[in-house]
Amino acid sequence: MSHKLAPDQPTPSLSLPLVGGGRFDLAEEKPDAFTMIVVYRGHHCPVCKSYISQLAGMLDKFEDAGFSVVAVSMNDEELATLSQKEWETGGLRIGYGLTTEMAKDWGLWISKAFKDTEQDIFAEPGMFWVRPDGRLYLVDIANMPWPRPDLEFLLSKAPYALANDYPARGTYET
């Protein structure tokens, strides 16, 4: 069972190999604003293809706003490499090998394939903005392929959040 991550609290660790070599290691990221981690369902998902392609097309804008960006999935290296080649990802880093346990640590929903074209087990979509000190700022997770945050809208809000020291929301406890 997945669990909720707590806003403004440290995130779980995350270290994955990247298509083309190297590793994404959240602990090593040093963005000016946020590290944005976009979890996609996998190469089998046409909605993911559209979303990741859009993100790749906006990568320069996110980087100019102080973000480091990575897209990750439970795909193996072969499928992640196919995604990079077929989806016009440009300079977007594509991480692979997310495990079921890692996905659960991040509060993601896990699905089992019901069609032959799907990966047997995969994480449903998620987006996380992590502060440079490792605390969670924004989280958006879904249990279906269709709900995805509007990337243009989110990008337009980042300068406001940073300029106004806008706090992570959802931290009130009774």
From TrEMBL:
A GO term for molecular function: antioxidant activity
Pfam families for the chain: AhpC-TSA
Transmembrane segments: none
Top-level taxon of origin: Bacteria
Xref: SUPFAM superfamilies: Thioredoxin-like
The protein's name: Uncharacterized protein
Organism of origin: Pseudooceanicola algae
Phylogenetic lineage: Bacteria, Pseudomonadati, Pseudomonadota, Alphaproteobacteria, Rhodobacterales
